[in-house]
Design the sequence.
């Protein structure tokens, strides 16, 4: 239990930090890619769509799962708190409340990562729709 107590925050926040970094990296990479897209280089809509949607699934996965990573950290933090209370066999309200409050920070961090990931995903998906529409218009003009 001491090992879990010692490394819980480090593990949960490292994982959430990695998820946040990946979210930022994918968002920047996709925005730069969208600026450099030349519709005339694509001969069919499927090839264009594959290029446009690359890595967007990862953003969706991060947005959907970051709260669960935070929640897992919270549950384990609560477990540690209750274990320690059980070991001391005394009910110290201050230590219980402090343990629970510290455990909840993992859920807050998970939500803080999920919100920008989902916002980024939705914004990039909208940009994909716009580029696909422009491709359709350009294709019809050239026919």
Sequence:
């Amino acid at each position: 239990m001491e090992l879990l107590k010692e490394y819980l925050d480090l593990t949960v926040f490292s994982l959430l930090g990695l998820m946040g970094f990946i979210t930022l990296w994918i968002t920047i990479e996709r925005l730069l890619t969208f600026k450099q897209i030349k519709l005339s280089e694509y001969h069919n809509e499927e090839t264009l769509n594959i290029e446009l949607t690359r890595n967007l699934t990862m953003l969706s996965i991060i947005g959907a799962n970051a709260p669960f990573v935070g929640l897992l950290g919270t549950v384990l933090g609560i477990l540690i708190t209750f274990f320690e209370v059980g070991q001391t066999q005394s009910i110290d309200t201050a230590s219980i409340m402090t343990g629970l409050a510290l455990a909840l920070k993992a859920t807050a961090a998970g939500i803080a990562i999920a919100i920008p990931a989902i916002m980024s995903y939705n914004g990039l998906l909208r940009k994909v729709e716009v580029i696909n529409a422009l491709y359709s218009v350009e294709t019809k003009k050239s026919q």
Notes: Helices lie at 2-36, 45-53, 56-88, 93-142. The radius of gyration is 22 Å.
